[in-house]
Amino acid sequence: MKKIGFLSFGHWSDAPGSQVRSGSDALLQSVDLAVAAEELGADGAYFRVHHFARQLASPFPLLAAAGAKTSRIELGTGVIDMRYENPLYMAEDAGAADLISGGRLQLGISRGSPEQVIDGYKYFGYVPEDDSSDAEMARRHADVFLQVIEGGGFAQPNPRPMFPNPPGPLPIEPRSPGLRERIWWGAGSRATAEWTAQQGMNLMSSTLLTEDTGVPFHKLQAEQIQRFRDAWAEAGHAREPRVSVSRSIFAIVDDRDRAYFGRGGTEDDQVGVIDNTVARFGRSYADEPDKLIEQLREDEAIAAADTLLLTVPNQLGVEYNAHVIESILTHVAPELGWR
C-alpha cells in the first residue's frame, strides 16, 4: 500500500494550448485539482514553490484555501526554499494553515533548486553570514522553524501588555500540535538524506540527485532511502519516518493521452550539471497500462518509498490532470499492490 498524490509546479503562461494563463488561474485551478484528487481517492496534493517565476510561490494562502475546501487529502509542498523564509513568520503561517486543514499539512522544505535570478534570497533580505553558504543559511532557518513550531516559549513578554500574558516566555501562535512530525526535507544526495534522518524529518526525494555513481537513478535513489532509514534507526527516533519520491507517470488509455504522450517516456536517465555539480535525472514513464505496470515493477526507489507523488502537467487544465491521476489509481496502482 502506498499513499499516492500529485505534485504541481503551478506554471502559467499565455502559450497556445495553455489552460492556465494567469496567476489567478494557477491558484484557483490548484485548489480545484486538490478537490478533484480527493474525490478520486488520491492521498495528497503537493505544490512546488518557485520565486521570481510564473509559477506557484507563496504556498500558505493556497494550502489554507485547499484545506478549507477539502476534508481528507494531505496538503503539502515540494519544496519551500528556506533561504527565502523568515522562520518565525513562516511558523505562524504554517500553524494557521494546518489548523484550517485540520492537521493535514505535509510541508517539504529544503535549500531549494536553482532559481530564476542570481542570489534571489538577497532581495528578500537574507544574506549568508561571513564564511557561510546559502545552503547553511537555509539549514539555520530550518532549525529555527523546527524549534518554534514545537511550541516552546522564547520571547520576553511585555510587563505592561495590551492583553494579559500567560506566565513565562511567549511562543509563536497559533501552534498546531503534531506539525513538527509532518515536516519533510528535500534531499538531493545520500549524505543529505542521512542528515535529514538525524534531524527527525521525513525524506522527500525528487526526480534528480545531485550526485552520480554510474548506477541507474532508481537504484541510487533506493540506496539514498536505505541510508536515510539506517540513519533514522541509529538516531533512535520513536516514530516511523515517511519517504516520498516523485515521478512523471502517464498511463495511455485514450486519444488525448496518445496525442500528448504517445511517443512514450524517456527510457534512460540523463546526467547533467546543476550549480557546477554533476546530477543524475530519473526517467519518465508513459505507456499503455500493462506495459507501464511492468516498467514500474523494476523501479526500486518507488518500491522503497511509502508515498509516490505524480508530477502533473498543470497547464493542461484540471479536467485532464484529474484524468491522469484517475488513470494511475484505476489502471496501474491496484496491479502493483499500491491499492
Automatic annotation (TrEMBL):
It is an enzyme of class 1 (oxidoreductase). SUPFAM superfamilies: Bacterial luciferase-like (SSF51679). InterPro entries: Bact_Lucif_Oxidored (IPR050766), Luciferase-like_dom (IPR011251), Luciferase-like_sf (IPR036661). Residues 16-258 form the Luciferase-like domain. Its EC number is 1.14.14.3. Keywords: Monooxygenase, Oxidoreductase. Transmembrane segments: none annotated. The keyword Protease does not apply. One of its GO terms (molecular function) is alkanal monooxygenase (FMN-linked) activity. GO terms for cellular component: cytosol. It comes from the Bacteria. The keyword Oxidoreductase applies. This is Alkanal monooxygenase alpha chain.
